[in-house]
Write a structure and sequence with these properties.
This protein is 54% helix and 11% strand. The protein has helices at 6-30, 40-58, 64-87, 89-95, 110-116, 120-129; strands spanning 100-104, 107-108, 138-143, 149-153. The chain has a four-stranded antiparallel β-sheet. Helix 1 (6-30) packs antiparallel against helix 2 (40-58), helix 1 (6-30) packs parallel to helix 3 and helix 3 (64-87) crosses helix 4. The termini are far apart.
């Protein structure tokens, strides 16, 4: 069966529309940082917001006002924690991670890769997405705080280096 009652469909449309408008206004008011992906903490907030929104819209056991209150709570806590972490290095440490260099001057840094649980194949794949065919052509590869890999090009104007062989596939 596609649905039980028309009432359920109508509730979903009204609750979903109201929750959507409310969340958009809430996010616009709280600033761009609320949905950024600067670090794992930000990702957790984004997932929690989406889960709360879905529960508010789909669950008959959760009143729309309760769902909206939960959204305000999550956005408020995220705003508070990120605001405090900007002002306090002590609070910032458990909330934010630091970027880590995985390739330096064309050479893989195995200890850093092991610490971040990144394989050589994953570094090579990230290099290929930037059309860099050899590790020695990268001045650096950085694992950013959000888990993405950023490339710093080397070569002309960079350090003196010699590439021995192309990156293995």
């Amino acid at each position: 069966m596609f649905f039980d009652k028309w009432h359920g469909l109508l509730r979903t449309v009204i609750a979903g529309g109201a929750a959507y408008v409310f969340l958009v206004l809430l996010l616009r008011g709280s600033g761009k940082r609320t949905l950024s992906k600067l670090n794992a903490f930000d990702l957790i907030i984004t997932v929690a917001l989406s889960s709360t929104l879905a529960t508010s819209v789909m669950s008959k056991d959760v009143a729309l006002a309760e769902g909206m209150t939960a959204l305000v709570l999550l956005v408020g806590l995220q705003w508070l924690i990120t605001g405090l972490s900007v002002r306090s290095a002590r609070l910032s440490q458990p909330v934010k991670s630091e970027p880590r260099l995985l390739v330096h001057q064309g050479r893989l840094l195995p200890a850093a890769m092991k610490h971040e649980r990144v394989t050589e194949d994953e570094v090579h794949a990230a290099l290929r997405t930037q059309r860099i065919g050899r590790v020695c052509d990268a001045a650096g590869v950085v694992m950013e705080t959000d888990g993405s890999l950023s490339m710093i090009l080397g070569g002309e104007g960079g350090w003196p280096h010699r590439c021995a062989a192309p990156v293995d596939s």
